[in-house]
Structures are given as structure tokens and as C-alpha cells.
Write a structure and sequence with these properties.
The protein is an alpha+beta fold. The chain has helices at residues 7-17, 36-49, 101-117, 144-155, 160-169, 172-175, 178-191; strands at 24-25, 32-33, 52-64, 67-78, 81-95. The chain folds into two domains: 7-123, Enolase-like, domain 1; 142-210, no CATH class. Helix 1 (7-17) packs across helix 2, helix 2 crosses helix 3 (101-117) and helix 4 packs parallel to helix 7.
């Protein structure tokens, strides 16, 4: 009696049958790609011939503007012994202005799970891509208490020169804050009036302040 192949032996047979997937140029694109449909058309029949099925067991996604981001686990199973299996962690992005982003992200994730599970060549050379990494810029926003403290410091001055010095002494994040800048502009206007007297402890209200 011939012993049934385990999942890894079946995968090895599938890997031997498919060694390369040709890149293609989609209409409107400036570069060639290996599409989800091309990978599926090549790989699915070979996996079935070797008694392997695959399907997602976990899918998590978020949206970042018009980009869907998908994290997925794809399971490859021996059809003669469902307990004999392995899983591939994968992810994908899908950009779309309407409602196709999640589907694109899932297709991307499945495509790369298949490519990596079977060790397929695609002609891509990720180590020599000429794209520089651009780290996400963190936007710093001062707290309301910091804004109020800065406004009070500006309000405590007596002359236009003192106002300039007090403003320059503030941290850059507060110098760029619109409420602080509006306060400074208001106070400068008041200090340049004849017989200027700001008086009081309250921070002035001005158009644009929040």
C-alpha cells in the first residue's frame, strides 16, 4: 500500500511543477507586475492536483485614507488529512477611491502567500529597488494648557520689544500654534496704540481663537 504524502511532500511536488510566473503590463500602468489572477491561474490547479487546498483563516483590515491595509493568515491543508497543514502570515495594501480597496488588499495578501509558500520567482528584485524610504512625519500638537500658558506669558509683557522677546522664547511648537500667533498679533496691535493699556488678567478673545 502506498503511503499518502504529507503536506510538505505535496507542497514539494507543487513547487517542482511551477517555477516561474511571467510578469505582465496592465493597461494604464507604467511598469510590469505579477497579478493575483496570474498567480492563481498558475498555482491553484497544481495545488489541487497534489491534494492541497488553501483558504484564509484570519483577516484583519484597517483604512488609512483611501488605502485599505489587510493582515491575513492563509492555511494550506492536506485534503486527505485536514489536521496536516501549515499557515502563512501575509499582508496587503489596496488603494481605491470607492469600495474596492479591501478586496484589492485581500487579493494582494493571498497572492504573496502563494508566491512565498511555493518559493516562486517573479523577476522582482526587492533588494535593488531605487525607492527611498520616507518615514511618516509625526505632527506634534501642543496641549491646551501649554497654549494657555504661552498666551499668559505674552499677555504679561509691557512693550512691543518685550512681546517679541517673549514670543521668541517660546518653544517652536508653540510659535507655530495659530492661537498663540493670533494672541501675539492682537497684543502687538494693542501695544502700538497710543496710551496702550492691556490691563486685566484675562487672555483677550480674538477672531480665529478656539
Amino acid at each position: 500500500m502506498t503511503k499518502e504524502k504529507n503536506i510538505h511532500q505535496r507542497l514539494a511536488s507543487a513547487m517542482a511543477a511551477v517555477t516561474y510566473i511571467q510578469k505582465e503590463r496592465k493597461q494604464g500602468m507604467q511598469y510590469t507586475i505579477v497579478s493575483h489572477d496570474a498567480v492563481t491561474a498558475k498555482v491553484r490547479p497544481v495545488l489541487l492536483e497534489n491534494g492541497i487546498v488553501y483558504y484564509p483563516t484570519r483577516c484583519q483590515h484597517t483604512h488609512n485614507g483611501n488605502r485599505a491595509e489587510c493582515s491575513m493568515t492563509v492555511r494550506f491543508v492536506n485534503i486527505d488529512d485536514p489536521a496536516d497543514m501549515f499557515e502563512v502570515e501575509t499582508f496587503g495594501y489596496g488603494v481605491d477611491g470607492q469600495d474596492k480597496g479591501p478586496g484589492k488588499a485581500m487579493s494582494y495578501a493571498v497572492k504573496y502567500a502563494l508566491l512565498k509558500a511555493l518559493g516562486l520567482e517573479t523577476g522582482d528584485d526587492a533588494d535593488h529597488d531605487s525607492i527611498d524610504h520616507e518615514p511618516q512625519r509625526q505632527v506634534q500638537v501642543p496641549s491646551m494648557s501649554e497654549v494657555r500658558d504661552a498666551q499668559k506669558k505674552l499677555h504679561d509683557v509691557q512693550t512691543s520689544d518685550e512681546l517679541t522677546a517673549a514670543f521668541k522664547a517660546l518653544p517652536e511648537i508653540l510659535q507655530k500654534n495659530q492661537q498663540v500667533r493670533d494672541t501675539g498679533a492682537y497684543l502687538r496691535k494693542e501695544l502700538t496704540k497710543p496710551n496702550a493699556d492691556l490691563g486685566g488678567d484675562e487672555i483677550p478673545t480674538f477672531e480665529g481663537a478656539k
